[in-house]
Design a protein that fits this description.
Elements: E1 6-12, H1 23-36, E2 42-44, H2 59-66, H3 73-85, E3 88-90, E4 94-97, E5 103-110, E6 116-121, E7 140-143, E8 147-153, H4 160-168, E9 173-177, H5 185-199, E10 202-206, E11 218-220, E12 226-229, E13 236-242, H6 245-253, H7 283-286
Parallel strand pairs: 1-2, 2-3, 8-9, 9-10
Antiparallel strand pairs: 1-13, 4-5, 5-6, 7-8, 10-11, 11-12
């Protein structure tokens, strides 16, 4: 399948002056970035960019105050902004008030036509520090003419099952939205490269800038090559142009022309039992030794 290159922009930035309460400020920032980089087709912001809080504020109170249904006023403004600018817009994740009354950490995606075409709820909140409810579905979506996009949020990248499922569902690019202010950002960069290598996908790991995060956003190719990297801390826009069809070519020819990780199970081989999961991730079996 022929694919058109996809120019992307990862806005490594911090939430300033309660962007959730000032949608005009966010829209102005999006227009500024596109003014500086007019060719971008997909623009993304970090985890909870529109729902940030100051260090002395109660995060649970901020979460509950910022939570809205995805089709609420915030969502309508974001959809209109994507339509106005004709871009794929991932505004970071937001606090979503679900129909069940729970609050989720959710990444919505808006199309150039102004439709919300996907939403991903974070499956692995960073317990015990994060109190949002857990999502229960892996999400991919097609970017017509370009390829398939998978979504993860921050701590999800530490669980190899997450990216593996997205790649299995056909993702060519996995976008990981991050808000990491801690020293383990170094490990997250390693994980971005490892997830790209073992799944033969592009990885884009977008962290917040100081003071919300420590930066070091990266774009990694499907053979693990570091294509672009932001500095540690300051605001920066990481840009790249991705031919997502390269991920499929790597799977066909092998990483470095050798490893074809999706082809180990020849026809007729007996199924491989997965005792850790019992066929699924069951919280009662998750901790090592809990399954006997």
């Amino acid at each position: 399948m022929t694919t058109t290159p996809l120019p992307i922009g990862l806005v490594q930035t911090a939430a300033r002056h309660h962007a959730a309460a000032d949608p005009d400020a966010f829209a102005a920032d999006v227009r500024r970035v596109l003014g500086d980089h007019p060719g971008l087709r997909l623009l993304a912001y970090p985890e909870l960019h529109l729902c940030g809080h100051e260090p002395d504020e109660d995060p649970v109170a901020v979460m509950n105050a910022a939570a809205e249904p995805l089709d609420g006023p915030r969502g309508a403004r974001l959809a209109a902004l994507a339509r106005e600018l004709g871009i794929w817009l991932v505004p970071g994740s937001v606090y979503e008030r679900g129909a069940d009354g729970l609050v989720y950490n959710t990444a919505p995606v808006y199309s150039p036509e102004g439709a919300r075409v996907a939403e991903y709820r974070k499956i692995f909140p960073w317990r015990p520090y994060e109190t949002t409810a857990s999502g229960d579905a892996f999400v991919v979506l097609d970017l017509p003419g370009h390829g398939r996009l998978g979504l993860t949020i921050c701590y999800d990248a530490w669980f190899p099952e997450t990216t593996r499922h997205l790649a299995w569902q056909g993702a060519d690019l996995v976008l990981n939205l991050v808000r990491t202010p801690t020293v383990d950002r170094a490990q997250e960069v390693v994980l971005a490269r490892a997830n790209a290598i073992v799944n033969q996908v592009f990885m884009a790991s977008l962290n917040a800038a100081l003071p919300d995060g420590v930066g070091r956003s990266v774009v990694v190719g499907p053979e693990g090559d570091l294509r672009a990297e932001a500095g540690p801390g300051p605001e920066e826009v990481v840009t790249d142009v991705l031919d997502l069809g390269e991920a499929r070519r790597v799977r066909t020819r092998g990483t470095a022309g050798l490893a074809r990780v999706w082809d180990p199970f020849e026809e007729g081989r007996a199924p491989l039992e997965l005792p850790l999961y019992g066929g699924r991730i069951d919280p009662g079996r998750w901790r090592r030794g809990a399954g006997g």
